[in-house]
Input
Amino acid sequence: MFKLKVDDEIEIRMLKESDTETVFALVDRNREHLRRWLIWVDASDSPDITRQYIRDSKRRYENKEALSAGIWLNDELVGATGVVQYEWHNRIMEIGYWLSADQQGKGVMTKVVKALIDDAFSNLKMNRIEIHCATGNTRSRAIPERLGFKPDGVMREAGLINGQFVDKVIYSMLASEWKTS
Ligand SMILES: CC(C)(COP(=O)(O)OP(=O)(O)OC[C@H]1O[C@@H](n2cnc3c(N)ncnc32)[C@H](O)[C@@H]1OP(=O)(O)O)[C@@H](O)C(=O)NCCC(=O)NCCS
Output
C-alpha cells in the first residue's frame, strides 16, 4: 500500500474501502467548492459511487496505471492527491489534487505535491512530472508555479467543466531541474 510521510502533521495514504464514508462525507461537504474545477463531483452523489471509485483505484494502482491517495492532517482526512496517470515508457507522470475548502491557505497541498515529486524522482526514477490546470484556476496554478514548474503551453478547450470548455496550462518539472531540500 502506498504511504508517504510529508512532515510531522501530514501523511498521504492510498485510499482503502474502509475510507469510503469519510471520503464521501468530505466530498459532500465541499461539493460547491470542488465542482467548480473537478468534473467527477456531481456524479459522486452516494457512498456507493465513492466505494466503487476506491475499488477501481486499487485495481489501477495494482496495474501501475494511477494512484489515488488521501491526505491526512493530524489524522483527519482533508483532501486527496495522486497520479492521474503513469506513462512508464517515457518516465512521465501527471499529478492531481484537491483540498477541503476550510484547509486552504496553509501550504498543505504545496508540501504534499513536493513530497510526491521527491518520491517520484528519487524512488520511481521518473524524468518528467506534469500538472494540468484550467487557466482560470488561479489557486491550482499557484502550486506548480510556487514549486518552480515551467508552463509548456496551453491546451485549448481541453476540458468541459459545468458546460463550459476550458483551456488548460500544462506545467512540467524535469528530474534535472528539481532541487531536493
Ligand atoms: C487547488 C487547491 C488544492 C489549492 O489549495 P491551496 O490551499 O491554495 O494550496 P496550498 O495548500 O499549497 O496553500 C497555499 C497557500 O498557503 C500559504 N502558505 C502558508 N504556508 C505555506 C507553506 N509552508 N508553503 C506554501 N504555502 C504556504 C500560501 O501563501 C498560499 O496562500 P495564498 O493562496 O493566500 O497565497 C484548492 O484550492 C482546491 O482544492 N481547489 C479545488 C479543486 C481543484 O481546483 N483542484 C485542482 C484541479 S487542477
